[in-house]
Description:
Blueprint: H1 11-26, H2 28-35, E1 39-44, E2 47-52, H3 55-64, H4 66-77, E3 82-87, H5 103-120, H6 142-153, E4 161-166, H7 172-185, E5 190-194, H8 195-207, H9 211-219, E6 223-227, H10 236-251, E7 255-260, H11 272-279, E8 282-286, H12 291-309, H13 315-322, H14 329-346, H15 352-368, H16 371-381, H17 396-412, H18 417-423, H19 429-445, H20 447-461
Parallel strand pairs: 2-3, 4-7, 4-8, 5-6, 6-7
Antiparallel strand pairs: 1-2
Helix pairs in contact: 1-2, 1-4, 6-7, 10-11, 12-13, 12-14, 13-15, 14-15, 16-17, 17-19, 18-19, 19-20
Amino acid sequence: MAQPVTKSMDWDALWLTARERMRREMGDAVFDAWIRSLSFISAEGTDVKIGALTPFARNWVAGHHVQRIERALAAESGQAVTINLVVAPQRPSVAPVVTPPREPVVAQVTESEKAEGRRILSTKILQNAQTFESFVPGPANEFAFRAAKALGSGENEEISLLYVHGGFGYGKSHLLNAIALEARKRGKRALFLGAEDFMRQFLGALNRKETLGFKEDLRAADILLIDDLQHLCRSTYTVSEFLHTLNAFSDLRRKLVIAADKAPGAIDNLSADVRSRLSGGLVIALDKPDRATRLAILKSRAAEFARARGLAVSDDVLDHIADSEENSPRDLVGAFNKVATYADLTKQPLTLEAARHILGQATVAAKKTSIEDIQRKTAEFYKLELRDFQSPQRSRRVARPRQVAMFLARELTMRSLPEIGKRFGGRDHTTVLHACRRIAALCEEDGTFKEEVNFLRSVLVRPS
């Protein structure tokens, strides 16, 4: 015979056994994220009151897990029950009597948790120059440009998930930055994170048992923008949380914008369900720009440079730079900056012959120098083994030459930061960027060290 549900039942014990049942059914990750922090408040007849720490947690559990809780409690009590979810910031020690803590303590803890939550979700600093107005559209990127502008300006509310992908330097980050700027103009909360930021901050919150705060702050954004999705690690927890984020933004009818170097189906780090979810959004590729677009990008940059420095760059120089079919928009701007800065520093007229000479040095180096050559020559110079560049050693004897080799690889090859990092023991792009900045700073500070780097560079670019 079924056991009646009454106040005399040991609900604390029933709740504990029901929790363990849900842990086995749901798995540790989901249980820890949503069920662990719930507390039993009281029971009256078949109505059971359960407390959640925040309004967001209550709403999420009510929409996604309340039936599972009812089934678990029914299985343990022997009777069907109805769950009533309420906000209970402080879990009571004895049910159903609730003894609130002293007011100063509650206020202090709450403010600390809120401050910590704000620190967890630090957003990227937006670049004011990367707007829709400064983006140069063309046949290779116009679809992505128009979709991004419609989403950022609120012109098309039907676009809920935008996924743009393309090679390094094709303008993905520029579009995401422009969307965030436009959204903030409209009073919307735009949260802009790199995939590594998302991963690092979520795992940090998980270790501190603060995932609810992480989720609440994340899902409070009107538009969430995630850059470089290919850097999302294979961590089960991270990929699972990312899937929850996708689903939550869909349920809440909020906007999600993602950029990556490949289409969803080509990113190995993602699970099949995440790939499927992303593929269901608006997926747009950014291709290599044609010559007309390359020239338009250079003319836009030249106009900015003329306003800032009062230096005009002739059309024949811009035509020469635009002729390089292999260059991404970022490479084009880099080539322009090189010749324009040369002219500005030397106070010499920037002729087509001068531009060919300046850019020709980099072209020869890029074609004839490989990362393997750079590693071999740098290892020989510093009396190291090649395997030292792949090793996790962080001693100065190995770390400084490795940074020099990364710096030269960035300067003398057309390889991207992630590609360079992969050749140096699978290091991430931020490590390579730090190495480049560190070596550039040391060259400014130490004349002898600068001579070492210049010698290595001359050996590597010397015609064979």
